[in-house]
Amino acid sequence: MDVLRLTLRQLQIFVAVARSGSTTAASAEIALSQSATSSAVNELERLLSLRLFDRAGKRLLLNDNGRALLPRALALLDGAAGIEQMSRDGSAQAQSLRIGASTTIGNYVLPKLLAGFMGAQQPGSAAAWRSKVVIGNTAAICDAVTAFELDVGLIEGPSHQPELVITPWLQDEMVVVAAPDSALAQSSRAGDRIPLRTLREAVWLVRETGSGTREATDQSLLPHLRSYRRSIELGSSEAIQRAAQEGLGVACLSAWVVNDALEAGRLCRVSTTLPRQLRQCHLVVHREKQSTPALLAFIAQADATAGAAR
Question: What Rg do the C-alpha atoms of the chain give, in angstroms?
Answer without folding.
Answer: 24
